[in-house]
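I'll show a record.
***
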Amino acid sequence: MSVQVQEHLYSSFLNGRTSDVTLQVRATTWSANYRLHRVVLIQAGFFASLWTSDFAEATTFHPEVTIVFDDTNITRAVEAFEVCISRLYGGGPPLHVSPHLIPSTSHPLTPQFPFRSSFDSTTPSGHHPATPRFLLSLLATSVYLSLPTVAAQALTLVLSTMGPSTVLSYLDFALGKPITAPDPRLNEPEAAVGLEKVAQIVQDDMVSLSGTSLYSTISEDPRRFSHYGAISDKIGEAAACWLARWAPDMLALEERKAGVSASSIRRRAKSDATLPNFSNIPTIWDRGGLSVPWICALISSDTLFVSDERGRYDFARAVVELRRRKGLVEDEEVAWKTLFEDGIYYCNMSMEDVIFISKDSSPTTKLPFVSIAVLQASHWQSSILRQHITARPVSPAADLRPSPAPTPGSPVQREKELGIMLTTAEIRARLASSDPSLDANGPYYLVPTDLSQRVGDNGSSVHPPTSNSSMISMDELFTPSFATSSSGPSSPSASRPTGLGRASIGEANFFGIQSRRYTAQGCVAADPDGTARWTLQPPFRFGVEFWDAELLPEKARLYSQTVWCGGSLFNAYVQVVRKKAVQIGIYLHRQSTMEIPGASGYRGAGESSTSSSSSAPRERLSSLLSSPASPTHNRGPSLPTNIASPSSYSPSIRSQRESPMRSPTPVSISSSLPNSIGSTISSSSLRPAGPTMVTLPPAPPAAPYRDSRPAVAAYFTISCASATGASQTRFSSAPDVFSVSQSWGWKSSSLRTEEYIEVGAEGTEIPTKVGNRAKEVSLRACVVLGLV
């Protein structure tokens, strides 16, 4: 279309000239007539179907067409409809999103939060304010009218503005709830900017339509017209991922807002001059925020960012007491009882923690949070695992040298296993024979296969409006957002994802964050092929956090805290690989008891950090996730070597019961190494002089007993949250053999390196100006580890 023709059509639209059809648009809260042109409207799938298929309007000329919107999300925003129509004419106002709504890698909880309101923003002249409510209505309207380019833009903006002030409204939209009324603080225009004279408002119809049977039906079941399939699921997944990452941070602020004294939840240290404006803190965990089922699903989720099971208990306790301050609700109390019984794995706690919990009572109800029977059952379960581990004979001639990784399920690997797994076929056979030794109720936990997938989206994977945007289809928008692939060539037996392996199935499993527990019958129903493997032993869950990963030299390791699991020590570490394109690798490591790595922590505001780095603007690249349908990653072992890698330690999430210890003088990576090792590193492999990572003394965990076997078999999943929290990359591994000081993990494009390290157009690293970063600027991951 030439510029002159486009300008002529747009002028005709603005002035209602030479129209050949009048759209009589009717909704619950507004009704208007629009004088438009069929040849333009037919670009939208809705109107194309209306005038080119078997509808009466297609066979007979009707100068007036009445459209009744039965979607409650469209009825609340006349301006969204007008923007959609204006886009068909090649015009309409540009949209302005408040910068206070957009999170970034440097401000992952959005700029100024929680010190400034997200409503403090000035809209440039001629722009339409793209408020969260407007974006949702624009998305609903464009999907209804089948305008893929507009829908893609709206979806991208929704996902890219996922933050503290929007997460609940976006989650409600994904759950099918109607969009709320406009917020009076935003002063949203009643009509689209620049299109105020396009509509002929019909006042009488607003009253007459409000009592029709159609809208009575909608009020009884608003979700009937308010769910948008995979598009809703994409938003729901992003919201669920965000909540799982930022749960402790938001709860700490809500407690402060409610006047609750400092609890065990980790907090950010702020001076009196920078105290948050608590009126800006949204309600998420308190009443008026998340529903009780969602709270229970999040707290019991494998991807909730807490230190360990004791940290999960402390978090659950704080949430429950926060809500109890406003009175007891019977339905809630029933849910809390189930949460504390099933959502926390007490068998993976220390005896000290279990004893503490047995004596811990609610200050509101004066009753214990967990019954003695539940704690005793967990102790029995941990004792059974200990018996399996310590009773197995150790080969006297065990070869401690690293050997090639055994094939999963091979005799070599089975020799390392504890014999506590069951296949679905075995469970089915024992159910059929009424085997009394089979635990029919479970719960059973799925042993994963080699798999990687992405859940959620920050907007970068949605087709943005570009010069080729006319090629976007509604089918592409309705493609599920998560991507899956089997592991790389180092795992020849990797299998493609099945229904059990798929992370998100929408609202049914809370958009992918629900932890799955099965009965024996449930295992059989979920796996008709009978090939999946299960265990009655709950996995060990812990969270890790890494700061300043971009300061790592080539192949150096940045460690998490070390944890004890079933007689062995484990930790996670990250590495930066700068060959060809910059990548981040993340690994699970079986740690030697003789070499606990030193601790690296957050460089607080008191630490000076300067860099001679370039101030070039950051460019977000999608090339590192080149195909959303098939992310690539390279999975393999990291074998022990004679010379330790340059390493530091990240305390990640310290125990809430301990005050963080801090080295009086920050120590750089190179200075923390023996001289003989430091001298083996070429100067080109080290980072330029500037900020260094803070190190703390090693902190070995308490070890009730030791697994003397030189090699153990374990499955694991590592869920890496994106920098802003709106997505997760999940890596799952079938049982692998871990020798002492051996690692398994991934170097992956799915880690979206550009979110943590600035990269240029060719995939090369851009030196970053680190400065005094907030504590939230970090790489967070949740690890699920199961010994088998």
